[in-house]
UniProtKB/TrEMBL annotation:
Organism: Treponema rectale
PANTHER family referenced in this protein's UniProt entry, alphabetically: ALPHA-GALACTOSIDASE C-RELATED (PTHR43053:SF3), GLYCOSIDASE FAMILY 31 (PTHR43053)
Keywords carried by this UniProt record: Glycosidase, Hydrolase
Domain Glycosyl hydrolase family 36 N-terminal: from-to ranges: 26-281
Enzyme class: hydrolase
Residue span(s) of domain Glycosyl hydrolase family 36 C-terminal: 647-776
Catalytic activity annotation: Hydrolysis of terminal, non-reducing alpha-D-galactose residues in alpha-D-galactosides, including galactose oligosaccharides, galactomannans and galactolipids
Superkingdom of the source species: Bacteria
InterPro entries listed in its UniProt record: Aldolase_TIM (IPR013785), Alpga-gal_N_sf (IPR038417), Alpha-glycosidase_related (IPR050985), GH (IPR017853), Glyco_hydro_27/36_CS (IPR000111), Glyco_hydro_36 (IPR002252), Glyco_hydro_36_C (IPR031705), Glyco_hydro_36_N (IPR031704)
Name this protein carries in UniProt: Alpha-galactosidase
């Protein structure tokens, strides 16, 4: 709901209130954002300004009783007394940098105009709650539009800002933030997610009591170094209790999130395009639109906030045919064969996949040009006939005839200097002529600021995607930017490269998704180097990390889950020792972790041991039965490896009739036998059947200890051990009981006793290093 009486603007969602007003001076004073309140007495929530303290400046002679330095503002700029993190920075043609944007008018509509170059949130109904406030600069003719979109059911408010040059001269826009959020107090914990390749989404908490904390990147992609999703929480917030704000940006390039505490103990948060690499020339009559920011608040802890974000992303970001479709179980060729692929090998792998229950076979890198390693051929999207003599179509037909869908890997934004494309169009590459180029994975980035390059990508990809019955595309992007330079833009426009690039990318993605609506697109950038709401506005899922180690993955997926629903997080079971860490984890744990994302496989099923293949087959069968719950249900976190030896999640179906729980331990601690599984999100009054499937253990896992229960002596590592291991397994525990939702949630279920140096029997929970369990609940 949007209320606009007396120039007080109150936006209400199901559980939150957002309020600001116009001051007599024309500035917008931010009054409140948080838990829903009845805002009858506006006076009660506004600051009383009677004088300006020494050493601060008076805004004007007329308004000499207040200072912009000590005011909660809705939109701020440097100057006129405000010395904190601004929302806009403009260099006017006369060199003046001061701005003073004051209220001009407002409008409430039920529409949402599309951004010219950027993706944004949407509502299937086509009806919106939209407030637009127009501000006008006091000295120049420029205007700012503040747009607010209220998504009541998921407690989300989206914001975007438009700058309009109303003067007769060009200006340089050095900053335009997407959202500003002022609080009259401080002491927030700023949570951001950092990392590197294979180490995405590592949570970091910083208590900001003075100064400024910034999470940002200039890598040219939203990046694994700092994801644009961040949280602000008040003291004492936990997964289930306390006040948490979640903030994201619908953008895939350089971004900036800052929380600054002022001298007067107020806090100001801003997010938007990173000003560090940005300057944009806006000519008279032209405008510039910021990316859309997404804000949510919950007083029910991090889980409450995540629920809001998950609902929002599922309903108002993800689009297209795959939005509500259950995703197929795929087998990807990368870790099975890397670049060393050919038709025979791929078909064999696909056959093994089919036997195990795989539904979609994906050929990764290596199929085009002379692509035998990562040194050449990016840009030349022509099939390598030595590897695939029957072309994509021939291979695809063979895969389809096995009863599998066929998918393909591409990296359209890149070029190797050793490629026909580069030889023909060196000016299409982002590089500074005459400078030695800073290489990354031996490849350069195509200059997507150029329409001709966008057209090349659209047409070359269209011809690949239509050359066979392609059901799935993995769209990769494997290097970061370091030197932004377009050979086609003028010197004064070089500060626009990063932004123009991502807008060019969005045009390509939008067009290809429109041309190929049936294809399931998966984003990727060396794993999760571009995992953001911009990409998710076109592609419904993203390869979350090249790290498939189950321990790392549990941490990484836990990180993503704060801001992103788990059906956007693609997760594969891979071989052990793991190719990124050389760690060995149980196969069931690798599956259990993957099952909480969009589960797939990335290993050589054709060469796996028989009992492993049988286990994989059983996993896929189980996953197919439960994937609707896992992919569409509500996901909650309990414990995690940051603060505990255990990670614990649960996914609950929309109707609360079914749920799957996950529990995993990092390292065994001896003689810690008792554990309790605690659920979330169930119907407290319903009775659930709580159960697990008993596991069968290889006797070799028990070494010589097996002799304490074996009727005959089994020498470790002997032939006899090998033979017995083939036929005899040790049964593990099962859980099986009827228990009420309230008990499951508030008390938890006490699990069977874990192995503690003694107790080799089927009532014992064998829980080795990296052991895990799935628990099922049905009513
Ligand atoms: C990136 C991706 C991998 C794989 C390789 C292929 O690293 O993240 O999954 O596709 O590229 O070169």
């Amino acid at each position: 709901m949007i209320q606009t009486e007396n120039n007080n603007f109150i936006l209400t969602t199901e559980n939150t209130t957002y309020a600001f007003r116009v001051l007599p001076s024309g500035h917008l004073e931010h009054m409140y954002y948080g838990r829903k309140i009845t805002l009858k007495n506006i006076d009660a929530v506004t600051e009383k300004h009677a004088f300006v303290p020494a050493n601060s400046t008076q805004y004007s002679r007329e308004f000499d009783h207040f200072c912009l330095e000590d005011l909660c503002l809705e939109f701020s700029s440097y100057g006129k007394g405000d010395i904190w993190e601004p929302s806009v920075e403009i260099v006017h043609s006369d060199g003046v940098r001061t701005c003073d944007f004051l209220f001009e008018k407002f409008e409430v509509t039920d529409t949402k105009p599309e951004y010219k170059m950027l993706p944004g949130s949407y509502d299937e109904s086509g009806k919106y709650e939209h407030l637009c406030i127009t501000l006008k600069d006091k000295f120049y003719n420029h205007r700012i539009e503040l747009h607010y979109y209220v998504y009541s059911q998921c407690d989300v408010i989206c914001r975007s800002v438009k700058f309009i040059n109303g003067g007769n001269e060009s200006v340089v826009l050095n900053r335009l933030m997407s959202a500003q959020l002022d609080f009259s107090d401080s002491g927030f914990t700023f949570t951001s997610f950092h990392g590197a390749w294979a180490r995405e989404m590592q949570r970091s908490d910083a208590l900001v009591t003075q100064g400024k904390f910034v999470s940002s990147t200039v890598a040219g992609v939203s990046s694994n170094r700092a994801n644009p999703f961040v949280m602000l929480s008040r003291e004492g917030a936990t997964e289930d209790y306390g006040e948490v704000y979640g903030i994201n940006l619908i953008y895939s390039s350089n971004h900036y999130e800052a929380l600054e505490v002022t001298a007067y103990g107020k806090s100001r948060f801003v997010n938007g395009i990173n000003p560090a690499t940005f300057s944009y020339v806006v000519n008279p009559g032209e405008d510039f639109e910021s990316p859309e920011a997404v804000l949510t608040y919950s007083h029910e802890g991090f889980n409450g906030m995540s629920q809001n974000m998950h609902h929002f992303v599922k309903n108002h970001i993800i689009r297209g045919e795959w939005k509500n479709k259950v995703r197929p179980v795929l087998l990807n060729s990368w870790e099975a064969a890397y670049f060393d692929i050919n038709e025979r090998k791929l078909v064999n792998l696909a056959k093994a996949g089919k036997d195990a229950g795989i539904e979609l076979f994906v050929m990764d890198d290596g199929w085009f040009g002379e692509r035998n390693d990562d040194h050449r051929s990016l840009g030349d999207w022509v099939v390598n006939k030595k590897k695939l003599p029957n072309g994509l179509e021939g291979l695809c037909k063979k895969i389809n005839s096995l009863g599998l869908d066929f998918g393909i890997w591409v990296e359209p934004e890149m070029v190797n200097t050793d490629s026909n494309l580069y030889r023909a169009h060196p000016e299409w590459s982002i590089e500074i002529p005459g400078y030695e180029h800073t290489e990354g994975r031996n490849q350069r980035i195509l200059d997507l600021t150029q329409t001709a390059v966008q057209d090349y990508i659209i047409e070359s990809m269209s011809s690949v995607f239509s050359s066979a019955n392609i059901a799935y595309v993995k769209w990769d992007m494997n290097r970061i930017f370091t030197d932004f330079y377009s050979q086609k833009l003028g010197a004064e426009n070089q500060g626009e490269v990063a932004h123009r690039y991502v807008c060019g990318l969005y045009r390509c993605m939008k067009e290809l998704v429109k041309r190929f609506p049936h294809i399931l697109f998966e984003g990727c950038s060396a794993g999760g180097n571009r995992f953001d709401l911009g990409i998710l506005s076109f592609f419904p899922q993203i390869w979350a990390s090249d790290d498939t180690d189950a321990v790392c993955r549990a941490e990484i997926q836990n990180g993503y889950s704060y801001g992103y629903p788990m059906n956007t997080v693609s997760a594969h079971v891979s071989a052990c020792p793991n190719h990124q860490t050389l760690r060995t984890t149980p196969l069931e744990t690798r599956f259990n972790v993957s099952a909480f994302g969009v589960c797939g496989y990335e290993c050589n099923l054709a060469e796996m041991k028989k009992d492993e293949v049988a286990a994989v087959k059983a996993q896929i069968e189980l996953y197919k039965k439960w994937r609707e719950v896992l992919q569409t249900g509500d996901f909650y976190r309990s414990r995690n490896f940051l603060t505990s030896n255990t990670t614990e999640w649960i996914c609950v179906s929309k109707d609360k009739k079914k749920a799957v729980g996950f529990m995993m331990q990092k390292l065994v601690r001896p003689n810690t036998r008792y554990e309790c599984f605690k659920a979330h999100g169930l119907d407290p009054d319903a009775e659930y059947h709580f159960y697990s499937f008993g596991m069968k253990y290889n006797i070799k896992n028990f070494g010589s200890l097996v002799n304490t229960v074996s009727p005959i002596h089994i020498k470790q590592d002997s032939l006899l051990e090998d033979i017995i291991a083939k036929f005899v397994k040790i049964d593990g525990e099962t859980e099986d009981c009827l228990v009420n939702g309230d008990t499951l949630m508030y008390s938890g279920v006490k699990l069977k006793q874990a192995f503690a140096g003694t107790g080799l029997n089927e009532e014992t929970r064998y829980y080795p290093d990296f052991g895990s369990r799935l628990y099922f609940m049905e009513c």
